[in-house]
Protein backbone atom coordinates (compact mmCIF):
# COMPACT_ATOMS: atom_id res chain seq x y z
CA UNK A 1 0.00 0.00 0.00
CA UNK A 2 2.25 2.84 -1.19
CA UNK A 3 -0.26 5.67 -0.75
CA UNK A 4 -2.70 6.90 1.83
CA UNK A 5 -5.27 9.18 0.30
CA UNK A 6 -7.57 11.44 2.30
CA UNK A 7 -10.36 13.11 0.37
CA UNK A 8 -12.16 15.84 2.32
CA UNK A 9 -15.13 17.53 0.74
CA UNK A 10 -15.45 20.69 2.78
CA UNK A 11 -18.51 22.84 2.45
CA UNK A 12 -19.27 26.15 4.14
CA UNK A 13 -22.52 26.09 6.06
CA UNK A 14 -23.80 29.37 4.64
CA UNK A 15 -26.18 28.74 1.76
CA UNK A 16 -24.87 31.68 -0.24
CA UNK A 17 -21.30 30.40 -0.28
CA UNK A 18 -21.65 27.32 -2.42
CA UNK A 19 -19.06 28.53 -4.85
CA UNK A 20 -16.48 28.61 -2.07
CA UNK A 21 -16.58 24.89 -1.34
CA UNK A 22 -13.18 23.18 -1.21
CA UNK A 23 -12.25 19.77 -2.57
CA UNK A 24 -8.72 18.53 -1.88
CA UNK A 25 -7.11 15.16 -2.36
CA UNK A 26 -3.72 14.70 -0.78
CA UNK A 27 -1.35 11.85 -1.47
CA UNK A 28 0.86 10.77 1.42
CA UNK A 29 3.70 8.44 0.49
CA UNK A 30 4.03 5.62 3.01
CA UNK A 31 7.43 4.35 3.98
CA UNK A 32 8.01 0.58 3.99
CA UNK A 33 7.70 0.36 7.78
CA UNK A 34 4.72 2.77 8.04
CA UNK A 35 1.26 1.35 8.74
CA UNK A 36 -0.81 4.50 9.26
CA UNK A 37 -0.94 8.15 8.22
CA UNK A 38 -2.41 11.26 9.79
CA UNK A 39 -3.82 14.27 8.05
CA UNK A 40 -4.93 17.44 9.84
CA UNK A 41 -7.62 19.77 8.56
CA UNK A 42 -7.86 23.38 9.71
CA UNK A 43 -10.15 26.23 8.68
CA UNK A 44 -9.58 29.91 9.33
CA UNK A 45 -13.25 30.75 8.91
CA UNK A 46 -15.03 31.59 12.16
CA UNK A 47 -18.30 30.12 10.88
CA UNK A 48 -19.20 26.42 11.18
CA UNK A 49 -17.78 24.19 8.46
CA UNK A 50 -19.17 20.87 7.31
CA UNK A 51 -16.76 18.38 5.80
CA UNK A 52 -16.67 14.80 4.65
CA UNK A 53 -13.36 12.91 4.79
CA UNK A 54 -13.03 9.73 2.76
CA UNK A 55 -9.78 7.71 3.08
CA UNK A 56 -8.80 5.75 -0.01
CA UNK A 57 -5.93 3.30 -0.26
CA UNK A 58 -4.16 2.15 -3.41
CA UNK A 59 -1.95 -0.79 -4.11
CA UNK A 60 1.18 -0.81 -6.23
CA UNK A 61 -0.85 -2.07 -9.21
CA UNK A 62 -3.32 0.84 -9.18
CA UNK A 63 -2.65 3.86 -11.41
CA UNK A 64 -1.83 7.15 -9.66
CA UNK A 65 -4.36 9.93 -10.53
CA UNK A 66 -2.50 13.10 -11.44
CA UNK A 67 0.87 11.37 -11.10
CA UNK A 68 2.22 13.01 -14.25
CA UNK A 69 1.15 16.56 -13.47
CA UNK A 70 3.03 19.21 -15.46
CA UNK A 71 0.44 22.01 -15.44
CA UNK A 72 -0.96 22.50 -11.94
CA UNK A 73 0.67 23.33 -8.59
CA UNK A 74 0.96 19.98 -6.82
CA UNK A 75 3.54 17.36 -7.73
CA UNK A 76 0.83 14.71 -7.69
CA UNK A 77 -2.44 16.46 -8.41
CA UNK A 78 -5.56 14.25 -8.57
CA UNK A 79 -7.93 17.24 -8.50
CA UNK A 80 -10.28 18.08 -11.35
CA UNK A 81 -10.38 21.77 -12.28
CA UNK A 82 -13.68 23.20 -13.49
CA UNK A 83 -14.56 26.36 -15.40
CA UNK A 84 -17.97 27.38 -16.67
CA UNK A 85 -19.83 30.11 -18.48
CA UNK A 86 -23.35 30.43 -19.88
CA UNK A 87 -22.55 28.12 -22.78
CA UNK A 88 -20.24 25.37 -21.59
CA UNK A 89 -18.63 23.78 -18.54
CA UNK A 90 -15.06 22.52 -18.99
CA UNK A 91 -13.18 20.14 -16.71
CA UNK A 92 -9.42 19.64 -16.81
CA UNK A 93 -7.19 17.13 -15.02
CA UNK A 94 -3.56 16.06 -14.93
CA UNK A 95 -2.52 12.77 -16.58
CA UNK A 96 -2.03 9.74 -14.36
CA UNK A 97 1.01 7.54 -13.92
CA UNK A 98 1.45 3.82 -13.42
CA UNK A 99 1.50 2.52 -9.87
CA UNK A 100 4.76 1.58 -8.13
CA UNK A 101 5.79 -0.30 -5.02
CA UNK A 102 6.44 1.27 -1.66
CA UNK A 103 9.94 2.62 -1.28
CA UNK A 104 10.65 2.75 -5.03
CA UNK A 105 10.78 5.70 -7.40
CA UNK A 106 7.83 6.46 -9.71
CA UNK A 107 8.13 5.56 -13.35
CA UNK A 108 9.13 8.43 -15.71
CA UNK A 109 6.16 10.03 -17.43
CA UNK A 110 7.56 11.00 -20.83
CA UNK A 111 10.10 8.30 -21.63
CA UNK A 112 8.64 5.87 -24.14
CA UNK A 113 5.07 5.43 -25.31
CA UNK A 114 4.87 1.65 -25.27
CA UNK A 115 2.70 -0.75 -23.32
CA UNK A 116 4.99 -0.47 -20.28
CA UNK A 117 4.42 3.27 -19.87
CA UNK A 118 1.58 5.50 -18.71
CA UNK A 119 0.42 5.88 -22.31
CA UNK A 120 -1.57 2.67 -22.00
CA UNK A 121 -3.90 4.24 -19.41
CA UNK A 122 -7.50 5.12 -20.25
CA UNK A 123 -9.66 7.85 -18.68
CA UNK A 124 -13.41 7.38 -18.24
CA UNK A 125 -15.27 10.66 -17.65
CA UNK A 126 -18.46 10.35 -15.59
CA UNK A 127 -21.35 12.77 -15.11
CA UNK A 128 -23.81 12.64 -12.21
CA UNK A 129 -26.92 14.83 -11.97
CA UNK A 130 -28.20 15.98 -8.60
CA UNK A 131 -31.97 15.86 -7.97
CA UNK A 132 -33.78 18.78 -9.57
CA UNK A 133 -34.22 21.90 -7.45
CA UNK A 134 -31.97 20.43 -4.75
CA UNK A 135 -29.64 23.27 -3.71
CA UNK A 136 -29.04 22.11 -0.14
CA UNK A 137 -25.53 21.55 1.16
CA UNK A 138 -26.55 18.31 2.87
CA UNK A 139 -27.74 16.89 -0.44
CA UNK A 140 -24.53 17.95 -2.15
CA UNK A 141 -22.29 16.30 0.44
CA UNK A 142 -24.34 13.10 0.35
CA UNK A 143 -24.07 12.82 -3.41
CA UNK A 144 -20.39 13.75 -3.44
CA UNK A 145 -19.72 10.61 -1.37
CA UNK A 146 -21.27 8.54 -4.16
CA UNK A 147 -18.76 9.98 -6.61
CA UNK A 148 -15.61 9.42 -4.56
CA UNK A 149 -14.85 5.71 -5.02
CA UNK A 150 -14.64 3.71 -8.23
CA UNK A 151 -17.44 1.16 -7.61
CA UNK A 152 -19.90 3.84 -6.53
CA UNK A 153 -19.06 6.07 -9.48
CA UNK A 154 -19.64 3.24 -11.95
CA UNK A 155 -22.92 2.33 -10.28
CA UNK A 156 -24.36 5.83 -9.92
CA UNK A 157 -23.04 8.05 -12.71
CA UNK A 158 -23.22 8.11 -16.50
CA UNK A 159 -20.04 7.45 -18.48
CA UNK A 160 -19.82 10.18 -21.10
CA UNK A 161 -16.57 9.51 -22.92
CA UNK A 162 -13.35 7.51 -22.69
CA UNK A 163 -10.10 9.37 -23.37
CA UNK A 164 -6.76 7.85 -24.22
CA UNK A 165 -3.39 9.17 -23.08
CA UNK A 166 -3.00 10.79 -26.50
CA UNK A 167 -6.14 12.90 -26.02
CA UNK A 168 -6.13 16.26 -24.32
CA UNK A 169 -7.14 15.81 -20.65
CA UNK A 170 -10.07 18.19 -20.96
CA UNK A 171 -13.79 17.63 -21.60
CA UNK A 172 -16.56 20.18 -22.19
CA UNK A 173 -20.24 19.89 -21.35
CA UNK A 174 -23.24 22.08 -21.99
CA UNK A 175 -23.83 24.31 -18.95
CA UNK A 176 -27.10 23.50 -17.19
CA UNK A 177 -27.91 26.62 -15.23
CA UNK A 178 -29.50 25.82 -11.86
CA UNK A 179 -28.99 22.06 -12.19
CA UNK A 180 -26.39 20.51 -9.88
CA UNK A 181 -23.88 18.28 -11.68
CA UNK A 182 -20.92 16.28 -10.30
CA UNK A 183 -18.06 15.18 -12.54
CA UNK A 184 -15.37 12.60 -11.93
CA UNK A 185 -12.70 10.76 -13.88
CA UNK A 186 -11.67 7.12 -13.42
CA UNK A 187 -8.25 6.18 -14.76
CA UNK A 188 -7.96 2.55 -15.86
CA UNK A 189 -4.98 0.30 -16.47
CA UNK A 190 -6.27 -2.15 -19.11
CA UNK A 191 -3.19 -4.38 -18.78
CA UNK A 192 -3.50 -4.96 -15.02
CA UNK A 193 -7.28 -4.42 -14.91
CA UNK A 194 -7.01 -1.86 -12.12
CA UNK A 195 -8.47 1.61 -11.69
CA UNK A 196 -8.47 4.69 -9.46
CA UNK A 197 -10.72 7.75 -9.12
CA UNK A 198 -9.86 11.43 -9.28
CA UNK A 199 -11.49 14.00 -7.00
CA UNK A 200 -15.14 14.71 -7.87
CA UNK A 201 -15.99 18.30 -8.73
CA UNK A 202 -19.43 19.92 -8.86
CA UNK A 203 -21.15 22.99 -10.30
CA UNK A 204 -24.58 24.57 -10.61
CA UNK A 205 -23.45 26.84 -13.49
CA UNK A 206 -24.80 29.88 -11.65
CA UNK A 207 -23.97 32.25 -8.79
CA UNK A 208 -25.71 31.98 -5.44
CA UNK A 209 -24.83 35.57 -4.55
CA UNK A 210 -26.18 37.23 -7.71
CA UNK A 211 -28.94 39.77 -7.12
CA UNK A 212 -30.89 38.76 -10.22
CA UNK A 213 -30.91 35.46 -12.03
CA UNK A 214 -29.15 33.56 -9.23
CA UNK A 215 -29.39 29.82 -8.59
CA UNK A 216 -32.60 30.17 -6.58
CA UNK A 217 -34.33 32.43 -9.13
CA UNK A 218 -33.27 31.45 -12.62
CA UNK A 219 -35.43 33.66 -14.80
CA UNK A 220 -34.92 37.40 -15.15
CA UNK A 221 -38.02 39.56 -15.03
CA UNK A 222 -37.60 40.48 -18.70
CA UNK A 223 -37.30 36.80 -19.63
CA UNK A 224 -40.44 35.90 -17.71
CA UNK A 225 -42.45 38.70 -19.33
CA UNK A 226 -41.20 37.88 -22.83
CA UNK A 227 -41.80 34.13 -22.71
CA UNK A 228 -45.10 34.42 -20.82
CA UNK A 229 -46.54 36.65 -23.55
CA UNK A 230 -44.99 34.39 -26.17
CA UNK A 231 -46.64 31.35 -24.53
CA UNK A 232 -50.05 33.03 -24.51
CA UNK A 233 -49.76 33.71 -28.23
CA UNK A 234 -48.49 30.16 -28.75
CA UNK A 235 -51.50 28.68 -26.92
CA UNK A 236 -53.86 30.64 -29.18
CA UNK A 237 -51.97 29.39 -32.24
CA UNK A 238 -52.01 25.82 -30.90
CA UNK A 239 -55.83 25.67 -30.90
CA UNK A 240 -56.94 28.34 -33.38
CA UNK A 241 -53.91 29.09 -35.56
CA UNK A 242 -55.12 27.76 -38.92
CA UNK A 243 -58.53 29.41 -38.61
CA UNK A 244 -56.83 32.76 -37.92
CA UNK A 245 -54.35 32.45 -40.75
CA UNK A 246 -52.87 35.95 -40.48
CA UNK A 247 -52.18 35.45 -36.77
CA UNK A 248 -50.38 32.23 -37.57
CA UNK A 249 -48.25 34.00 -40.15
CA UNK A 250 -47.41 36.72 -37.63
CA UNK A 251 -46.37 34.03 -35.11
CA UNK A 252 -44.13 32.28 -37.65
CA UNK A 253 -42.59 35.54 -38.87
CA UNK A 254 -41.95 36.62 -35.28
CA UNK A 255 -40.01 33.41 -34.53
CA UNK A 256 -37.96 33.46 -37.70
CA UNK A 257 -37.01 37.12 -37.56
CA UNK A 258 -36.40 37.15 -33.82
CA UNK A 259 -34.19 34.05 -33.90
CA UNK A 260 -32.01 35.20 -36.78
CA UNK A 261 -31.77 38.73 -35.36
CA UNK A 262 -30.72 37.61 -31.87
CA UNK A 263 -27.70 35.66 -33.15
CA UNK A 264 -25.79 38.52 -34.84
CA UNK A 265 -26.78 41.14 -32.25
CA UNK A 266 -25.36 38.87 -29.53
CA UNK A 267 -22.17 37.93 -31.36
CA UNK A 268 -21.33 41.37 -32.73
CA UNK A 269 -22.45 43.78 -30.01
CA UNK A 270 -21.91 44.31 -26.29
CA UNK A 271 -25.50 45.20 -25.49
CA UNK A 272 -26.97 43.98 -22.22
CA UNK A 273 -29.30 41.00 -22.20
CA UNK A 274 -32.43 43.06 -21.50
CA UNK A 275 -31.70 45.44 -24.38
CA UNK A 276 -31.08 42.53 -26.74
CA UNK A 277 -34.34 40.89 -25.68
CA UNK A 278 -36.34 44.09 -26.28
CA UNK A 279 -34.73 44.59 -29.69
CA UNK A 280 -35.47 40.96 -30.54
CA UNK A 281 -39.13 41.40 -29.59
CA UNK A 282 -39.43 44.56 -31.70
CA UNK A 283 -37.64 43.03 -34.68
CA UNK A 284 -39.65 39.82 -34.43
CA UNK A 285 -42.89 41.81 -34.42
CA UNK A 286 -41.79 43.71 -37.52
CA UNK A 287 -40.92 40.44 -39.21
CA UNK A 288 -44.34 39.00 -38.39
CA UNK A 289 -46.07 42.11 -39.73
CA UNK A 290 -44.02 41.98 -42.93
CA UNK A 291 -44.93 38.33 -43.52
CA UNK A 292 -48.63 39.12 -43.01
CA UNK A 293 -48.32 42.13 -45.33
CA UNK A 294 -46.62 40.01 -47.98
CA UNK A 295 -49.45 37.49 -47.83
CA UNK A 296 -52.10 40.25 -47.98
CA UNK A 297 -50.54 41.95 -51.01
CA UNK A 298 -49.13 39.08 -53.06
CA UNK A 299 -50.96 36.03 -51.71
CA UNK A 300 -48.21 33.55 -52.63
CA UNK A 301 -49.23 30.52 -50.58
CA UNK A 302 -46.14 28.37 -51.29
CA UNK A 303 -43.72 30.94 -49.88
CA UNK A 304 -45.79 31.36 -46.73
CA UNK A 305 -46.11 27.61 -46.27
CA UNK A 306 -42.37 27.21 -46.80
CA UNK A 307 -41.81 29.42 -43.77
CA UNK A 308 -44.41 27.46 -41.82
CA UNK A 309 -42.89 24.11 -42.80
CA UNK A 310 -39.36 25.23 -42.01
CA UNK A 311 -40.50 26.20 -38.52
CA UNK A 312 -41.84 22.70 -37.90
CA UNK A 313 -38.73 21.22 -39.51
CA UNK A 314 -36.51 23.29 -37.22
CA UNK A 315 -38.30 21.93 -34.15
CA UNK A 316 -38.19 18.32 -35.37
CA UNK A 317 -34.49 18.62 -36.25
CA UNK A 318 -33.77 20.12 -32.82
CA UNK A 319 -35.58 17.23 -31.12
CA UNK A 320 -33.59 14.66 -33.10
CA UNK A 321 -30.24 16.21 -32.16
CA UNK A 322 -31.41 16.65 -28.56
CA UNK A 323 -32.51 13.04 -28.11
CA UNK A 324 -30.43 10.98 -30.54
CA UNK A 325 -27.68 12.64 -32.57
CA UNK A 326 -26.25 15.47 -30.46
CA UNK A 327 -23.34 13.60 -28.86
CA UNK A 328 -22.16 11.65 -31.90
CA UNK A 329 -18.55 12.49 -32.66
CA UNK A 330 -19.22 13.17 -36.34
CA UNK A 331 -21.42 16.13 -35.44
CA UNK A 332 -18.66 17.87 -33.52
CA UNK A 333 -17.73 19.28 -36.91
CA UNK A 334 -19.76 22.45 -37.43
CA UNK A 335 -20.07 21.94 -41.17
CA UNK A 336 -21.48 18.42 -40.83
CA UNK A 337 -23.82 19.53 -38.06
CA UNK A 338 -25.36 22.50 -39.86
CA UNK A 339 -25.71 20.70 -43.18
CA UNK A 340 -27.45 17.74 -41.52
CA UNK A 341 -29.60 19.99 -39.37
CA UNK A 342 -30.69 22.05 -42.39
CA UNK A 343 -31.46 18.98 -44.50
CA UNK A 344 -33.76 17.56 -41.81
CA UNK A 345 -35.49 20.93 -41.48
CA UNK A 346 -36.00 21.26 -45.26
CA UNK A 347 -37.32 17.71 -45.68
CA UNK A 348 -40.43 18.47 -43.61
CA UNK A 349 -42.03 21.07 -45.94
CA UNK A 350 -41.03 18.95 -48.94
CA UNK A 351 -42.78 15.87 -47.55
CA UNK A 352 -45.97 17.81 -46.77
CA UNK A 353 -46.01 19.82 -49.99
CA UNK A 354 -49.07 17.90 -51.21
CA UNK A 355 -51.11 18.50 -48.02
CA UNK A 356 -50.42 22.06 -46.97
CA UNK A 357 -53.36 22.36 -44.59
CA UNK A 358 -52.13 19.40 -42.54
CA UNK A 359 -48.65 20.98 -42.44
CA UNK A 360 -50.16 24.24 -41.18
CA UNK A 361 -52.17 22.52 -38.44
CA UNK A 362 -49.22 20.36 -37.31
CA UNK A 363 -47.01 23.42 -37.07
CA UNK A 364 -49.62 25.28 -35.05
CA UNK A 365 -50.04 22.35 -32.66
CA UNK A 366 -46.41 21.43 -31.98
CA UNK A 367 -44.68 24.80 -32.26
CA UNK A 368 -47.44 26.64 -30.42
CA UNK A 369 -47.45 24.15 -27.55
CA UNK A 370 -43.64 24.21 -27.29
CA UNK A 371 -43.83 27.90 -26.44
CA UNK A 372 -45.46 26.79 -23.17
CA UNK A 373 -42.37 24.68 -22.41
CA UNK A 374 -40.15 27.74 -22.85
CA UNK A 375 -42.40 29.71 -20.50
CA UNK A 376 -42.09 26.98 -17.84
CA UNK A 377 -38.30 27.24 -18.10
CA UNK A 378 -38.50 30.89 -17.05
CA UNK A 379 -39.93 29.87 -13.68
CA UNK A 380 -38.39 26.45 -12.94
CA UNK A 381 -35.68 24.23 -14.39
CA UNK A 382 -36.64 21.87 -17.21
CA UNK A 383 -34.34 20.01 -19.57
CA UNK A 384 -36.84 20.30 -22.44
CA UNK A 385 -35.88 23.92 -22.99
CA UNK A 386 -32.51 22.69 -24.24
CA UNK A 387 -34.22 21.20 -27.30
CA UNK A 388 -33.84 24.58 -28.99
CA UNK A 389 -31.43 26.26 -26.57
CA UNK A 390 -28.62 23.88 -27.60
CA UNK A 391 -29.05 24.96 -31.22
CA UNK A 392 -28.98 28.62 -30.20
CA UNK A 393 -25.86 28.05 -28.09
CA UNK A 394 -24.14 26.38 -31.03
CA UNK A 395 -24.96 29.34 -33.25
CA UNK A 396 -23.72 31.84 -30.66
CA UNK A 397 -20.58 30.16 -29.29
CA UNK A 398 -17.80 29.00 -31.60
CA UNK A 399 -16.50 26.34 -29.17
CA UNK A 400 -19.84 24.81 -28.26
CA UNK A 401 -19.35 22.08 -30.88
CA UNK A 402 -17.00 20.22 -28.52
CA UNK A 403 -19.49 20.16 -25.62
CA UNK A 404 -21.49 17.09 -24.65
CA UNK A 405 -25.17 18.00 -24.38
CA UNK A 406 -26.38 15.43 -21.84
CA UNK A 407 -29.27 16.59 -19.66
CA UNK A 408 -31.14 14.94 -16.78
CA UNK A 409 -34.70 13.75 -17.25
CA UNK A 410 -36.46 14.01 -13.92
CA UNK A 411 -39.93 14.54 -12.47
CA UNK A 412 -40.45 18.09 -13.80
CA UNK A 413 -39.42 17.02 -17.27
CA UNK A 414 -41.88 14.10 -17.37
CA UNK A 415 -44.71 16.38 -16.26
CA UNK A 416 -43.86 19.13 -18.75
CA UNK A 417 -43.36 16.57 -21.54
CA UNK A 418 -46.84 15.22 -20.81
CA UNK A 419 -48.26 18.76 -20.90
CA UNK A 420 -46.49 19.47 -24.19
CA UNK A 421 -47.77 16.27 -25.78
CA UNK A 422 -51.32 16.80 -24.47
CA UNK A 423 -51.47 20.37 -25.79
CA UNK A 424 -50.01 19.41 -29.17
CA UNK A 425 -52.35 16.45 -29.72
CA UNK A 426 -55.38 18.38 -28.47
CA UNK A 427 -54.60 21.38 -30.67
CA UNK A 428 -54.04 19.30 -33.80
CA UNK A 429 -57.15 17.17 -33.21
CA UNK A 430 -59.38 20.18 -32.52
CA UNK A 431 -58.25 22.03 -35.63
CA UNK A 432 -58.56 18.95 -37.82
CA UNK A 433 -62.19 18.47 -36.76
CA UNK A 434 -63.07 22.16 -37.03
CA UNK A 435 -61.55 22.61 -40.49
CA UNK A 436 -63.25 19.55 -41.97
CA UNK A 437 -65.32 20.68 -44.94
CA UNK A 438 -63.89 24.21 -44.83
CA UNK A 439 -61.73 25.84 -47.56
CA UNK A 440 -58.08 24.84 -47.21
CA UNK A 441 -56.84 28.44 -47.02
CA UNK A 442 -58.47 31.87 -47.17
CA UNK A 443 -58.65 33.66 -50.50
CA UNK A 444 -56.12 36.27 -51.57
CA UNK A 445 -56.96 39.32 -49.40
CA UNK A 446 -55.80 41.93 -51.89
CA UNK A 447 -57.88 40.45 -54.71
CA UNK A 448 -60.93 40.36 -52.47
CA UNK A 449 -60.40 43.98 -51.44
CA UNK A 450 -59.90 45.08 -55.04
CA UNK A 451 -62.95 43.19 -56.26
CA UNK A 452 -65.08 44.67 -53.47
CA UNK A 453 -63.91 48.18 -54.28
CA UNK A 454 -64.76 47.79 -57.96
CA UNK A 455 -68.18 46.41 -57.07
CA UNK A 456 -68.93 49.40 -54.88
CA UNK A 457 -67.87 51.83 -57.59
CA UNK A 458 -70.02 50.30 -60.35
CA UNK A 459 -73.08 49.27 -58.34
CA UNK A 460 -75.20 52.39 -57.77
CA UNK A 461 -77.68 50.36 -55.68
CA UNK A 462 -74.97 49.67 -53.11
CA UNK A 463 -75.28 52.25 -50.27
CA UNK A 464 -71.51 52.50 -50.17
CA UNK A 465 -71.65 53.88 -53.72
CA UNK A 466 -73.08 57.11 -52.31
CA UNK A 467 -70.43 57.54 -49.64
CA UNK A 468 -68.64 60.90 -50.17
CA UNK A 469 -64.93 60.89 -51.03
CA UNK A 470 -62.40 60.61 -48.24
CA UNK A 471 -61.42 64.31 -48.50
CA UNK A 472 -65.01 65.49 -48.01
CA UNK A 473 -65.53 63.09 -45.11
CA UNK A 474 -62.40 64.36 -43.36
CA UNK A 475 -63.48 67.99 -43.89
CA UNK A 476 -66.92 67.22 -42.50
CA UNK A 477 -65.40 65.53 -39.47
CA UNK A 478 -63.12 68.52 -38.90
CA UNK A 479 -66.09 70.87 -39.08
CA UNK A 480 -67.91 68.79 -36.48
CA UNK A 481 -64.92 69.01 -34.16
CA UNK A 482 -64.80 72.80 -34.56
CA UNK A 483 -68.51 73.07 -33.78
CA UNK A 484 -67.95 71.08 -30.64
CA UNK A 485 -65.47 73.64 -29.26
CA UNK A 486 -67.41 76.74 -30.42
CA UNK A 487 -69.18 78.69 -27.67
CA UNK A 488 -72.92 78.50 -27.63
CA UNK A 489 -74.65 81.80 -28.61
CA UNK A 490 -77.08 83.15 -26.00
CA UNK A 491 -80.75 82.97 -26.91
CA UNK A 492 -83.18 86.00 -26.83
CA UNK A 493 -83.12 89.62 -28.00
CA UNK A 494 -80.37 91.72 -26.48
CA UNK A 495 -80.89 95.08 -28.40
CA UNK A 496 -83.67 97.54 -27.40
CA UNK A 497 -86.57 98.06 -29.72
CA UNK A 498 -86.91 101.50 -31.32
CA UNK A 499 -90.42 102.80 -31.30
UniProtKB/TrEMBL annotation:
Signal peptide boundaries: none
Xref: InterPro entries: TM7S3/TM198-like_dom, TM7SF3
Membrane-spanning ranges: 225-242, 249-265, 277-296, 303-324, 336-354, 361-381, 414-432
Keyword Signal: no
Location relative to the cell: Membrane
Organism this protein belongs to: Enhydra lutris kenyoni (northern sea otter)
Coiled-coil parts of chain: none
GO terms under cellular component: plasma membrane
Keywords: Membrane, Transmembrane, Transmembrane helix
Lineage: Eukaryota, Metazoa, Chordata, Craniata, Vertebrata
Domain of life: Eukaryota
Main location: membrane
Domain TM7S3/TM198-like: 228-432
Membrane topology note: Multi-pass membrane protein
GO biological process: negative regulation of programmed cell death
The keyword Membrane belongs to this UniProt entry's keyword annotation: yes
Protein name in UniProt: Transmembrane 7 superfamily member 3 isoform X3
Amino acid sequence: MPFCVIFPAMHLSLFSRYTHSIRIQQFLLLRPEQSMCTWHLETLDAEPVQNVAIPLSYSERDPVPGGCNLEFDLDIDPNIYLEYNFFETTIKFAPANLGYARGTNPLPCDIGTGRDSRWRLLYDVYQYFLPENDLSQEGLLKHLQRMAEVPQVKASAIKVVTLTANDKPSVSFSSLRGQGVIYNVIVRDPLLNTSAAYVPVHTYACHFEAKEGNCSSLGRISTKVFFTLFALLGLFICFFGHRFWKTELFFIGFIFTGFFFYIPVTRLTLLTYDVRLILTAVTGSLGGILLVAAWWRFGILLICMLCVGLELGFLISSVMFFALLGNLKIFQDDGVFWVTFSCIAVIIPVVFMGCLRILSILTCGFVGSYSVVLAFDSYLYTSLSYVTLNVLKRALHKDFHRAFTNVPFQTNDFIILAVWGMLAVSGVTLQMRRERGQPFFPAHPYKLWKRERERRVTNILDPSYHIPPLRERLYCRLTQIKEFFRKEQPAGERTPLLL
